[in-house]
Specification:
40% of the residues lie in helices and 17% in strands. It has eleven helices and eight strands. Strand 7 and strand 8 form a beta hairpin. Helix 3 crosses helix 9 and helix 3 crosses helix 10. The mean pLDDT is 94. The structure holds adenosine-5'-diphosphate and magnesium ion (MG). It holds the Pfam family Pkinase. GO terms for molecular function: ATP binding; MAP kinase kinase activity; protein serine/threonine kinase activity.
C-alpha cells in the first residue's frame, strides 16, 4: 500500500501527546479509516529519512495485541505514520470518561499488554519503552492493543535527547540512566494497572501535583506506590507489587508474569465479555 498525504482526508483530531498529533483520517483510494500520527523531529533530512526507513519494521509486527501499521512516509519536514484506527480510543480516556476500569477488564488488559510485549521482544527484540494508558487502545469489537513502541533506534535517540522524551511512567533505573531492559516496561505496566484500577495516576499517594523533576526524584528515592488497603483482590496487589519492585534484578519479566502471576492466570481463563463492556461505553 503506497500511502501519500494527498490521499488522506482528515476526519477529526484524536489527540496530541509529546511531539506529535494524531488524527482520524480516511484513505480515499481504499476507503479505509486510519489513525495518522504526525511526528515533528528537529533533525536533518538524512536522519528523518533514516527514521522512516527504520519504521518499516512495523510492517512485520503482526500480532492480535499490536495495533496494525499501514505505512510511514515523510511529509514536508515531518514524519507521518498511519496505523489501525481504534474506535474506543485509549485507556486514559476511557477511565477519565467512565471512572475506574472494572477489575476483570484490567485483567484482560494486562494479558493483552503482556502478550504484545512478549511478542515484540521474542520476535523482534523490541522493548516497548512507552507503556502507559494512552498507548493501550481498544475498539468496539472488544480488542485491546498496544501502540507507540520503540522500533526506530534513531527516533528513540532523537526523542531521548529532548525534554519530550521524559514520561511519568519511567522506571527508577531508566531515570538513573542505568541499563534498560524489558523489565523497565514491567515497571510502567505496574503503574498503568494501578492507574486503571484506581482511576488516577498513583504517584504520589496524597495526589499533590509534582513537577516532572520532583516526580522523577520521587520515583528514584521514595518507596513504590501501593494500592489503598482492602479495596482490591490480593492477587492484584501482588502483581502491582511485583511490577513496582525498584530493583530491576528482583522485578519479573513479562514472560515471568505471564507464566507465574495468579492475577494473569485468572484473567486468561476469565470469561468476561469485553465487547459488551466496550459497547456499554459508546
Ligand atoms: P500520547 O500517547 O502521549 O497521549 P500520542 O500522540 O501518541 O500521545 O496520541 C495522542 C492520542 O491519540 C492518544 O492519547 C490516543 O487517545 C489517540 N490515539 C493514538 N493512536 C490512536 C489510534 N490508533 N486509534 C485511536 N486513537 C488513537
Ligand atoms: Mg501514544
Amino acid at each position: 500500500l503506497d500511502l501519500r498525504t494527498e490521499d488522506l482526508r482528515n476526519i477529526q483530531e484524536l489527540g496530541c501527546g509529546n511531539g506529535g498529533v494524531v488524527n482520524k483520517v480516511l484513505h480515499v483510494p481504499t476507503n479505509t479509516i486510519m489513525a495518522r500520527k504526525i511526528i515533528h523531529i528537529d533533525a536533518n533530512p538524512n536522519v528523518r529519512k533514516q527514521i522512516v526507513r527504520e519504521l518499516q519494521i512495523l510492517h512485520d509486527c503482526n500480532s492480535p495485541h499490536i495495533v496494525s501499521f499501514y505505512g510511514a512516509f515523510m511529509t514536508g519536514g515531518d514524519i507521518c505514520m498511519c496505523m489501525e484506527y481504534m474506535d474506543l480510543g485509549s485507556f486514559d480516556r476511557l477511565y477519565k470518561k467512565s471512572g475506574p476500569i472494572p477489575m476483570n477488564i484490567v485483567g484482560k488488559t494486562c494479558c493483552a499488554v503482556l502478550d504484545g510485549l512478549i511478542y515484540l521482544y521474542d520476535e523482534h527484540r523490541i522493548i516497548h519503552r512507552d507503556v502507559k494508558p494512552s498507548n493501550i487502545l481498544m475498539n468496539s469489537s472488544g480488542l485491546i492493543k498496544i501502540c507507540d513502541f520503540g522500533v526506530s533506534g534513531v527516533l528513540i535517540n532523537s526523542m531521548a535527547s529532548t525534554f519530550v522524551g521524559t514520561s511519568n511512567y519511567m522506571s527508577p533505573e531508566r531515570i538513573k540512566g542505568a541499563t534498560y531492559s524489558v523489565k523497565s516496561d514491567v515497571w510502567s505496566l505496574g503503574l498503568t494497572l494501578m492507574e486503571l484500577a484506581m482511576g488516577r495516576f498513583p504517584f504520589p499517594e496524597d495526589g499533590r501535583p509534582l513537577s516532572v523533576f520532583e516526580l522523577m526524584q520521587f520515583i528514584v528515592n521514595e518507596p513504590s506506590p501501593t494500592l489503598p488497603a482492602g479495596q482490591f483482590p490480593p492477587e492484584f496487589e501482588e502483581i502491582c507489587h511485583a511490577c513496582l519492585l525498584k530493583d530491576p534484578a528482583q522485578r519479573p519479566t513479562p514472560k515471568d508474569l505471564m507464566l507465574h502471576s495468579t492475577f494473569v492466570q485468572n484473567a486468561v481463563t476469565d470469561k468476561v465479555d469485553i465487547e459488551e463492556w466496550a459497547k456499554s461505553l459508546m
